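so the lab meeting is tmrw and i was supposed to have these ready like two days ago... anyway. pasting both below. for each one the top line is the aa sequence and the line under it is the structure tokens. i havent really looked at them closely yet so no promises
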Amino acid sequence: MDSLDLKVRTGEIFGFLGPNGAGKTTTMKMLTTLLIPTAGRAKVASFDLHSQAALIRSRIGIVPQQFSLFDELTPLENLWYIGELYNMKLEEMRARSEELLKTVQLYDKRDVPCEGFSGGMKQRLSVAAGLLHTPKILFMDEPTTGLDPQSRLALRDLTKQLNTSGITIVYTTHDMEEADKLCDRIAIIDMGKIMALGTSKELKDKYGGGHFIEIETDRHDAELLKELKQLAHADSVTARNGTIELRVKELEGAMVHTLSRFLEKKRIAVKELKMTEPSLESVFINLTSKALRD
């Protein structure tokens, strides 16, 4: 890592987004005490990462990318095993296990060995395991990797539900749509550095390359392009194959109507007029480049 500096707010879903090898998992391992930092300072749940690692582990839960529980055990047996590691009282452990299996919709499979479970079922059980000791913070490391669309949506909804209940969530993902819809704030990380940090909207506005208005017309000339640029307060205007493209900082609600009326007065036929917002994917590419990563 290279002088990574950030603060996760209590009660938010904070996302790490980055290409392969960017440092997401390394950061997660350090924050969860699985990897000792070689330099720097950090606090997790108000405890020092170097001197109070045991206290941190008692306040956090972890959902790994790969299922790390026991296939030959049932969901209840897996959770009871973990409960014993946390020295939970028997009645508390059993009640909490049943409560969580209901939350992750695995209660009807509580006595079935996990070896036949789907990837989505195993990940939901991993979430239950990470929550057994009622942590304040849940670290989720690319939990939807390799899951089918239905399982991804189910796990995403479960994550939102957990966050609504008051749990702070630190989440790493490769999925742009997932980060866009799920995270309150996002850190785009590459080569061990934070390239950008903010809400999805803030990142799109600053690094997305601008909003675009595309107008497909039957004709245009240099004077029309100049007038459209002034009318839309556009940063740039280009025309290619009958389509005029205006790049603007913000999309105003009345702009489509204004442009349509202007072109109508000019007796210029408009085949299509649409507005396009920058995507999180365009932000990601602009900050980390298009180069393939191993």
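ok protien two:
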Amino acid sequence: MHILSIIRIIGILVMCFSGAMLLPAFVALIYGDGGGKAFMQAFILSLMFGVLLWWPCHHHKQELRSRDGFLIVVAFWFVLGGLATLPLLLLDTLHLTVASAVFEAFSGLTTTGATVMTGLDNLPKALLFYRQLLQWLGGMGIIVLAIAIIPLLGIGGMQLYRAEMSGPMKEQKIRPRIAETAKMLWGIYFSLTISCALAYWLAGMEPFDALTHSFSTVSIGGFSTHDASMGYFNSPLINGITVLFLLISACNFGLHFRAFSTIGRENFVKIYLRDPEFRFFISTQIILVALCSFIMWNHSYFSSSWQDFEQVLFQAVSISTTTGYTTSDFTTWPSFVPVLLILASFMGGCAGSVGGGVRVARVLVLYLQGKRELKRVVHPNLVYPIKWGKTVLDDRVIGSIWAFFSAYLLVFLVCLLGVIACGVEPFDAFNAVLACLNNLGPALGSVSGNMMAIPDSAKWILTVAMVCGRLEIFTLLALFTPAFWKA
């Protein structure tokens, strides 16, 4: 294992991330409501730390192997989360404990959206911008961004890409060179962000809110600059824009690239419709919205059927894609609806998207395998391959999905027992772990609004759960196997 090369790369990435501290400092300069000093101090400390990591090892440029990539990804996420905590601790107005500050920073970077803060409307604009920026950077993955913009890394990059990207089919490359792939992904990501910000602004948001909410919308993060979340704007048009961009961001970004790169040569709509995961994802969204709308109409919860549908549409897409935006307190709705929405968050977004959960692709493959096993009960000798479109899936892919579910369940149970041991009631502990492991944010019970009531000891466990969810468990668990460290 090339430890010195790994340290060198982490140092470069940390130095690059330190530049992100300058943007909130600039926002503080514009609005003059405080926070600039804390972010400048955090920038200097982060930059110095990066230099200290990089300089002693700057001559070491060995080619990375697969396990080196995994170690860089995990180490960088934890180092980055620690450095992202600095402004939260240096700001005089917050008075957060170390555990709460770490939890908030990791919640942003992992696009979880769970928070320990209240009174957001009165906080400095620089801090609000910083929280949203963390989600935007974490959405596509800072590692991929670094590979795209730092050619001086001197590595092929595929090892980092495989460790960072989500989904069961992440070994499929969109292009042969990872730098081109990363640039393409971020090009799509950046274009969606600008489009979303313009749409919000034209719909009536202030420029600051439009930009910051585009960060958390396209990243499927869920942070807001207001305590009332998207309900603060009370606008059906803004809600509709949010739903549209959440659905786009919850789809596979590789699919977006393939679709828009063929405009003029092929009907790009057909590319989406031919994708099994996309069809399954949209179908489940339609069924979820229809079922929840029927329940709300039956209870006449809001003043009109249209309002029932509008609120259900927004909340169903927001929760099922693991965003966590709210327009009202959905936990007070007829109990069937919030429970169904929380369960839907387990599926989350598509593979290769910025959403959380176990991924639509995995759920679809298990559904197809279930159909096959039912047929085999009737016809034991039947040869019935599982197809992904026109491609027959290898049994190794199916086995890896079952392995993922086993690891997911193991991590969930360990975190659940740990949080309960910290003194949290079982129901609240279940919802807190669910919200963090699925990178969802809000849940039911006392954690429906924020995580302030969770003790600091439990916040450390939940922080690890967020990272596990963001790195899809195996990337982190691989470090705890003896085989990983053998030469």
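from a quick look at the 2nd one: The longest strand covers residues 387-388. Residues 147-156 have pLDDT under 50 and may be disordered. will dig more after coffe
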